């Protein structure tokens, strides 16, 4: 495949053993406790979409809960309904004597940087951003372009129409990194198989494509998904929290056999309502990474060294094909395993223009 200068840093799957990340938050902080064994208090602020988004906010929150349970710690959370409360949510948690505050998402970078500078005695971790250079801020990012490359290859292999599609919530690096990898995976498939599968919804070279303008499910997200279906896309990757729900509804309404690729978590497991159309998912291991970061901080081993999830460290990956395992090409899994090894050893270059400012 053609090589572009790689500047990744973000965005899919971390299994046990991954290091570091964080996230989540709530407009009015709430307090939850396990059988208390420690005075350490971990906290989290979410991005818009909420802690039940079946995606990145929820994964970070579950990691926080896992750590708190193991530690016997009381945690607090604040859910951001929109961007206007990022700063105040973090400030409220600082006032609640939180020792570590995990902010979920690239959009919280400015508020996190401001509050970290104002509160040097409080540790912070931020998921999907590495722009903050501070002793008390740990970046947690995922190279999701690597996993999305595998998903794009699989989508091209499975497509019956010869058209696959992707669209995003907001045009920010943590979203477009998925779309870059997906489109390049399709391109690699075409090169290897002498095919001409088309990608709609995103152009890697121009960095232009289809976006809903936010991460909320609703009529706009469904309409964008419908435009891809109208262009004959029969495999669709929505990137942006709950917007996948609207894409799923558009696919079900169309009834044309199209399938869905999840983002962040395994859609088949995370939202069984759509398991019948869940082809695979591009995963990033935010839950175990968040858990690790919280437990390290509680053990006085907090570090501002960035964590980057990759295929090599199992920080990103793709989910099983589940009900579609018998419907994909018999040689597909072996091909994906070979490609994964090539990405890890560097013989297959996966590059993206997505970068965190």
UniProtKB/TrEMBL annotation:
<protein>
    <submittedName>
        <fullName>BMP family ABC transporter substrate-binding protein</fullName>
    </submittedName>
</protein>
<dbReference type="InterPro" id="IPR006311">
    <property type="entry name" value="TAT_signal"/>
</dbReference>
<comment type="similarity">
    <text>Belongs to the BMP lipoprotein family.</text>
</comment>
<dbReference type="InterPro" id="IPR050957">
    <property type="entry name" value="BMP_lipoprotein"/>
</dbReference>
<feature type="signal peptide">
    <location>
        <begin position="1"/>
        <end position="23"/>
    </location>
</feature>
<keyword id="KW-0472">Membrane</keyword>
<keyword id="KW-0449">Lipoprotein</keyword>
<feature type="domain" description="ABC transporter substrate-binding protein PnrA-like">
    <location>
        <begin position="44"/>
        <end position="347"/>
    </location>
</feature>
<dbReference type="InterPro" id="IPR028082">
    <property type="entry name" value="Peripla_BP_I"/>
</dbReference>
<keyword id="KW-1003">Cell membrane</keyword>
<dbReference type="InterPro" id="IPR003760">
    <property type="entry name" value="PnrA-like"/>
</dbReference>
<dbReference type="Pfam" id="PF02608">
    <property type="entry name" value="Bmp"/>
</dbReference>
<keyword id="KW-0732">Signal</keyword>
